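Quick check before the chapter quiz. The format below is the same one you will see on the exam, so make sure you can read both the input and the output lines.
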Amino acid sequence: MNTLRKYLDKIKPNFEEGGKLHPFKSVFEGMETFLFVPNTTSRNGSSIHDPIDSKRIMSIVVIALIPTLLFGMYNVGFQNYKAAGMIGTASFLSVFFYGFFVVLPKILVSYIVGLGIEFAWAQWKGEEIQEGYLVSGILIPLIIPVNCPLWMLALAVAFSVIFVKEIFGGTGMNIFNVALAARAFLFFSYPTKMSGDSVWVAKDSIFGFGNNLPDAFTCATPLGEIAQNTGMPYSLCDMILGFIPGSIGETSVIAIALGAALLLLTGIASWRTMLSVFVGGGLMAALFSSLDMTPIPWYEHLVLGGFCFGAVFMATDPVTSARTESGQYVYGLLIGVMAVVIRVMNPGYPEGMMLAILFMNMFAPLIDYCVVQKNISKRLKRLNANK
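Here is the expected output.
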């Protein structure tokens, strides 16, 4: 690493003012900050934010996502071998490597397209490259069905980075969650590739791993089974462990919980938002259950679909969520309530978490504004009372 640092210091003058490679300064700075922590950060007391740099925050979030990524890869292989009736004889490595080879191209496409656009945009604007897409680049593949075509994924990434992030000013300025916007683009533009019973299980073998399944093979998610009134073929244990069909990174509650623990221990994610999402969803699900409007117990709503993943990794996005402490309670509570309402009241859309978070992204600034104004009013009343 010292050799690399010395090499970068040696060629850096070429990218400075007057250097022959000055037009590519933003590209060089982006690579430098990606490889090494910046030399300076804000000092305590000099900013409303803490002195930790954004790259370190992004790196911690990526590390927190690794358990869901690894389990997602295994589950992709598990569902394929299970559908072929081979899961009892397949080795762990065969199952895992099949999922690895299926998921890896999606991660590569996400990063190549997303970072490519960010580099090009920074070069065009003459600005420093931000690290924000380091997290979005891995989130997007984790929240899509395994059979989503790569060209659709590339199109969604390009749309999300350009129209949801860069047009609003780049990292830290976007109103909506970038990863969820990509998923929403896919869902509304190509609904047959994002929902239904044919998109959740990989059907083709690759590099000698996996099994070729019939094109007509179908397999619904648990929420899809509920929406079709076909019963629940999975146990609560299956739901918690994650051996069920679903988006690549959203099925295992245990893997998501490991990521949540890291985010909470490091203070990256807000426990207020996270807790409130589960409280809101649990209360709403319990209400519907008491009215016999949902065929499953209230607690199963909290472990199915993208609820846990959304509560831990999406609702807590520091850019698009509420920032005041009181506002985070309200923001999370409404996300949980709305996600369950959409699930139960709209049989055509059995998930709900994506729309709930995107909808509340719009209202997060208003929630913070109301909280701040309420505090100002309290202080003014206290000031006037002391006169």
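If your answer matched, good. Residues 39-51 have pLDDT under 50 and may be disordered.
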